Queue: 2 jobs
Job 1
Amino acid sequence: MKKLGLIGGVGPEATLQYYKEIEYGVMKKLGKPVLPEITIESLSCFKMIPFGATQDYEGMTEYILGAVRTLEKANCDFIALACCTGHMVFDRVARETAIPMLSLVQVCVSEAKKKKFNKLLLLGTEGTMKDAYFKEPFEKEGIQVVTPSEEDCKWIGWHIENELEHGVITKDTKEKFIEIANKGYSDLGVDAIILGCTELPMVYGDVELKIPTLDATKIHIQNIIDEILI
């Protein structure tokens, strides 16, 4: 089995999900009590999100590279970043290390192609929704990616940073998130919704929406499990 280097902490809830689902997912696939080796380097979502909001690519790259250098010393076989916003500089970071990195965005593109989706609504941090890094790989494959209204984008971004990243989700907040997602179906005519923030499963994990979701976290985790077992 390959040893995984996981860059986590961005945020804590997602890191817990990655760790548990990868460990137990590997054991389930093997059908015996064997757990993979994982080294986690935890960063702060409260540093990462401002980098994304201001499109400070250089600052974000240096911050993530600090974690990569630690994982290099831990002799990891590959690295995964448990954060959608951090993928804003994925290519820059990947060029600076000899260790392979598994892109969350690219595995989501592959899943969308497999399911023959043509038009997707992207939900995530404000930085993710306004930047091109998530949209361009889909558009290269002929898949259109749209975002909510500016007002909804600001609302989503604020509640991710000030509630979800604190491990909090109120009833009113959850209802509003569901309303925004369902508007994608009724107003924008999308085929599916990309949960483009690793904290969004806190909101949508147990909800049945009007249209399918591409859960970036779950898709990434499954691909990490497959990579560990290669």
Job 2
Amino acid sequence: MRTAIVLVLLESLIVSAPHLPAQQSAATKLVTIDGIVVDGANAPVPSAEVGLTLEGMKKTFARSDNAGHFTFSQVPLKPGTITVRRMGYRVRTITLDLFKLSAHEPVKVDLESVASDLDTVTIDATSGRMEEFYYHKNTSSFGYFIDEPEIRKRAPRFVSELFRTIPGARIQVSRRIGNSVTLRGCQPRIWVDGVKTQDTELDEVANVDEVAAIEVYPSWAGTPPQYMDRETRACGTIVVWSRR
């Protein structure tokens, strides 16, 4: 009886063994993900942060080149998403199409600008882009100013984390990305390189690696006239300067 049981077990192992390599091969199939990041005019968006999240794996990152292209080489063919961030654009997350990836079709990510066409401040760059920031920092008694050395020193994961030391600022985890920031209990107006953004959070339009400096005005008091906004006069103003 025991001999019969042993023979049955051996037979089942022999029959199932040839199927193991095929199953392992299917589970570990590797592909290269090529893609491009473009704006609303179909123009390439360089230096965008591209995050790849695959099921059961740690998130990996790439950055788009001057032509907007990015590549993730030899990654497992698994369900996942790609999230793209670039200062001045809304964060975009897309779900990977496994059939297209298997066919080596490139991934295209369209980014939407957060800029308002109606509200743009003209910046005199003849003496350097950051001259306005340092002028405000040296003359304002009401604002709070964070420059690039301070950002590097504090090494935040998200730009919003820099606001932990700003009086009246409150940081809460966002349902979308990073954190949401309020000043005096409401959402402040955000300007990026002189352009007013609409209906967006700070971490959605500003990446730590791209920010050169930040001006924070908790109220209208001390806010430079060109950045005053009656819609958010009680909620303060945030002015972000990029490194580009």
